Amino acid sequence: MIPNQKLKASDGYEVCLFPCETLYMSPDRDPDEHDVLALDFLPYNISGQRITAMPCYAPFSGTIVYTGSDHNCILESDDKVHMPDGSLEYGRVLVAHSFQAPVLNTHYDQGDLFYRTGNYGQSQGEHLHMEVAHVSSKSIGYWNPGTGIGIYGAIHMWNALFVNNTVMLRPENYNWVEWNITPTIDKKKKGFPWAIYAKKFRKRSVNWHFFYFVIFY
What we know:
The chain is mostly beta strands. It has strands spanning 14-15, 22-24, 39-41, 55-57, 62-67, 73-82, 88-96, 107-108, 113-116, 128-135, 154-155, 167-170, 212-213. Strands 1, 3, 5, 6, 7, 8, 10 and 11 form an eight-stranded mixed sheet that branches. A three-stranded mixed sheet has the order 2-12-13, with no helix packed on it.
């Protein structure tokens, strides 16, 4: 997504967006089996240059409901949001390692700058650590019971975040999805087959002569 980007479906609910202008998956968090819900993304600009303190924008309108020792925080959506897996639930995004500590109970509108990449805490290099979840009620706890690791309701990133206006520098072979339909639906229903999936081919290195741009009009 780009700064100040806002996207709502015709039913009035927001569309959950990937929070950065570029998507460059870290090779260190790219398992052959798609069984890891936490992923790391490296800070690059749209010209393919490595940068520091890459901005991250609120993927939906929401409030920071948790902060931790690694400058990590959880942003929870004000209302239910659309996700690529067809769900319409409350969204939560966990991010970590920013150099600047987040402030509990701060509210952000969709598209506001709310975080930056960093190397604070238990980290060996600057990146954005991220997990995304959806829950049916805000009363549900934040952490996965029994493990203490990972947020409750976490799902695969490509099932949680639409990539409209995100430059796909290193998407790997995951099914990243662009929102391109505005359905008229009953708010009480969910799980509609309107998402169109486009598989990206695996790339082990970036070809700086060719970028794949995902642009939403």
